[in-house]
Amino acid sequence: MHGRPRKAPTQEEQEAFTIKASKLRSLQSQFLQFHHKKVYTKEALDVSAKLLESNPEYYTAWNYRKIAVQHNLNLPEVGENEESIKSILDEELRLVENALRKNFKSYGAWHHRKWVLSKGHSSTDKELLLLSKFQKADSRNFHAWNYRRFVTTLKNIPDEKELEYTTDMIYDNFSNYSAWHNRSVLLSHLLKEKAKGYSPKDNVFTEEFEFVRHALFTDPDDQSGWFYHLWLLDQTVKLETLLVSSWPPHGYNLSLSVDGSFGDCSLSPFTSLQTNTRTLPLILYFSEAVENICSSTVEIECENVASNELVWRSLSGDGTGSAQAWLTYLNFPEEHAHSEKAYQVKVSLARSQGIFSSTGVHHGNSSHIEFSVSVPPHCSEDVDLKKEGKISWSDECFSTHDTQFLESVLVNLFHLERTKIVETVVDYQWNITTINTEITHCRELLSTMNCKIGKLTLARLLKAHDTLMSYTGTSHRDVSHHAEILQLYDDLKKMDPAHLHYYQDEYSLVLLKQIISNQELLLKHCRKYRDPSSPRINNFCLRLNNLSLSRIGSMEKLLWVQVLDLSYNQLKTLEGLEVMQLLSCLNVSHNKLCSFTALEPLKLLRSLKVLDISYNEIGTHSIDTRRYLCSSPLNHKSGGNWKPEEFEMHGAGVADYWEAYTIFKDLNLIQLDVIGNAVSDEKIKSLLVKLLPSIQWLDGESCH
Amino acid sequence: MGELLVEKHAKYIITVEKRKDDFESVVMEHLRLNGAYWGLTTLDIMGKLGAVEQDEVISWVMQCQHESGGFGGNIGHDPHLLYTLSAIQVLALFDKLHVLDIDKVSNYIAGLQNEDGSFSGDIWGEVDTRFSYISILSLTLLHRLDKIDVGKAVKYIISCKNVDGGFGCTPGAESHAGQIFCCVAALAITGSLHHVDKDLLGWWLCERQVKSGGLNGRPEKLPDVCCSCDIVISISKSVMSFIDSHVVASQVCYSWWVLSSLIMIDRVHWIDKGKLVQFILDCQDKENGGISDRPDDAVDVFHTYFGVAGLSLLEYPGIKPIDPAYALPVDVVNRVMLGR
């Protein structure tokens, strides 16, 4: 039992317990008899009261009291007599008060009080007084805080007044998380209503930052204020949703190569795309998840492309109607002319056209992108996949020698960085000033003491600063804080080893951002792929192997990648990869993927042909942490599409292999490596061969 | 490092199951069905369910059913969602869901959904996201989720989301580990976890781990503040009303709520699992079996369940894996949901 020492009771204690138990037992059986026989006399009511006063959790007795109240209010002698009604209800309030003295946290007692007050006959004047008494005794009791919200609504007490109450409670004790919480609720409400004195929000937040600073400087190790500070920070960087990148990028000239071969020449992924279907994926990437991307919110001007017939789909790992990245396909008709034809494409998103984000913020700016696509005159025969050679990931296939080629590709990439999507200009001056002020104060605090959560906050502030700067269009590479942030996470890993992996995940995201936003650093990770036996893979490869990455990010800058090597990292998840619609070859061997369900994001990659997931931990773990983040027969949404019959045909046990089934049935791989996982036995291999009709190579062996 | 004393815990649970007249049993009489779920699930995880008289348990469970279709916490008690779920879970453990009049039970549950998508616990109208979880889970186990408006139910849960990423029992109520478990699990089962800010909530949850390795349920719950009853929020109304206590912030029961929530959003690696395993093992009564809220306190079935289930989530060797959302052994969930 909670807080009670583990020791055998003395004989006296034992006897006292026995007496107490038998008393309570007899009350209980008397009560149940009255309840079942529907007796509501004074004697019966007294029994239930006694029972509840000694055990407020005895819920059936609270129900009985409610039935009794209704019964007694209907008695002829009570009728419309306000006095009698009040007296019946007051008796209930008195009982609740006694019960709460016994147990301040009894759900049944608090609900009974609400039920009585909702009848509308009792005065609510006493309630706040009673609450103050209770809240003084335990300022964190969430029942009391909930009841407080109930009473203030009933009495129409304005939010401004309740906000003052939280100020008092916080001044009383900076550590009162419940009061901070209530403050965030009230303030959100006031800001949303644009109440007098609470608009514009800039002024309000500036004051709140000052207010919370008192708490943080008084006791920097207390979490309550920091959580509130994090909310304020989040509100400060929360802007209207922006279109941050696209594929193809703005200002590009792209040529489609439809004969399915790159031949010998080196082609940049920025100037050519191999396809055998004359279609071009068009990807829009936003600053946060948005809904309602469709032909009526995105206008596309292009000869021979009917904008209103385009189907947009969200690129979210969980397949919902909300995502950061959205995809459609542009189809270019076959031209009979002998010459190549160039199409000009213009994509426009007008301001406030019905695109909204998951946080309710509308797409704020009108923006547009323009690019051109050259389509060759004829389409060759469909490529014969059987001729495909095996792709090798060994080091000797990746060369750094042709630096001229690699650099020329990167010039493209960083040109992309500079060619901003055309959009209306928004003023972020307040946001940047505020973040800068907070950075200064945070540094000041850390100069006097070594505070874990202060360091973390500084890292978050610096990150927020860099993000804001990147939106303003200033060349943020010159002022970015990547190195300092990485140093902070390194410190945190040492200071607070229990949360090592949290810091490592954050570290990975910043490290990737640092690499991707710096041309010289990125060049070190670019390789030219050359393997004479497989001519049909784009020879520009991004190799982010051996970096201890536990998480991947900055996807908005990686939409162009076709060949990606992430091997020898610490990845447990592939979340984010679903937006890399051009990806054809992926190596995630020697990572920490724990289950097939972790591959869910890959299901959306139509062009993925070669996948290496060898030497992970698939099948090693009894608890699957991705089980509810993928569509599965265990959750309602996809439950309807689940057809176990279909599965039985493959002759495998449903419970053992449903994960593999749900992932691989949507993939179109020609080469797969699964060796080195606990799950990779002959059974799973034969299932994979059945699920993947185009497979040519499994674990290095030809399937035919 | 100690190890899990399977035999002793099994013996302890079976003894408590049979004991009906001591003080604790009398105090908890009204939620005996919750107790049965805790005890039996623990036994099943440890591979000891065979030690129980199955027919006796099932016949007693069915006697707790009310004519409305709902179950009370014990024979003669009023029906409530809290005990209806426990009844369904116990029957699922024994593979006996077919003894239920499934339409009757599911109509009772569906009848408690309110216009705004929320659920009342019973006819008396207390609204809480715990009841949303219970209804969604119960109806899923009965394959009758189509009886309610799932979209509205999800929308209501989202309306209880707070700026710290957590969830409260009603809109505006403070986040709490137990409540977060209920909301995250309900969203998991309905395939709606995209509504959760996983990084924000994950950080809030992983910061519940304190220096001892154990977990607390809310930020800055001070050691001198009694929080004994916060913990019973999730599945039961209260077990500990009688114990006046001043407890430290970290307790075994939180290991379940925080861990399962972290697992469902794939952020469990953000805590130190080894330290938590050690904390739970240190809470065992090495002589008489059972697990307590913290080392050297008196044991009870409730904490024995949360301790063993927590170890199962931590992949402790030799015990069955438990499903973080269904709160039932994975093999039981597979049997019910995948048709074995």
Please give the structural blueprint.
The complex is a heterodimer of chains A (704) and B (340).
Chain A: H1 11-37, H2 42-54, H3 59-73, H4 82-102, H5 107-118, H6 125-137, H7 142-154, H8 159-172, H9 177-193, H10 201-218, H11 223-237, E1 243-247, E2 253-257, E3 272-274, E4 279-291, E5 298-301, E6 313-314, E7 322-331, E8 341-349, E9 356-357, E10 367-375, E11 398-399, H12 403-418, E12 422-423, H13 429-448, H14 452-472, H15 482-495, H16 500-516, H17 519-523, E13 526-529, E14 540-543, E15 563-565, E16 585-587, E17 610-612, H18 636-639, H19 644-648, H20 654-664, E18 671-673, H21 682-691, E19 697-698, E20 701-702
Parallel strand pairs in A: 2-3, 2-10, 14-15, 15-16, 16-17, 17-18, 18-19
Antiparallel strand pairs in A: 1-4, 4-7, 4-9, 5-8, 6-7, 8-10, 10-12, 11-13, 13-14, 19-20
Helix pairs in contact in A: 1-2, 2-3, 2-4, 3-4, 4-5, 6-7, 8-9, 9-11, 10-11, 10-13, 11-14, 13-14, 14-15, 15-16, 20-21
Chain B: H1 6-18, H2 23-27, H3 32-45, H4 54-63, H5 81-93, H6 102-110, H7 129-141, H8 150-159, H9 177-189, H10 198-206, H11 252-264, H12 273-282, H13 301-313, H14 330-337
Helix pairs in contact in B: 1-3, 3-5, 3-13, 5-7, 7-9, 9-11, 11-13
Subunit structure (chain B): Heterotrimer composed of the alpha subunit RGTA, the beta subunit RGTB and REP; within this trimer, RGTA and RGTB form the catalytic component, while REP mediates peptide substrate binding.
Cofactor (chain B): Zn(2+)
GO cellular component, one term (chain B): Rab-protein geranylgeranyltransferase complex
Helix content of chain B: 40-55%
Strand content of chain A: 5-15%
Number-wise, the strands of chain B total: 0
CATH architecture of chain B: Alpha/alpha barrel
Element string of chain B (H = helix, E = strand)? HHHHHHHHHHHHHH
Give the radius of gyration of chain B: 18 Å
Number of strands of chain A: 20
- Low-pLDDT sequence parts of chain B: 222-249
CATH fold name of chain B: Glycosyltransferase
Q: What is the CATH C level class of the largest domain in chain A, in words?
A: Mainly Alpha
Protein name (chain A): Geranylgeranyl transferase type-2 subunit alpha
EC number (chain A): 2.5.1.60
Family (chain A): Belongs to the protein prenyltransferase subunit alpha family.
Keywords (chain A): Prenyltransferase, Repeat, Transferase
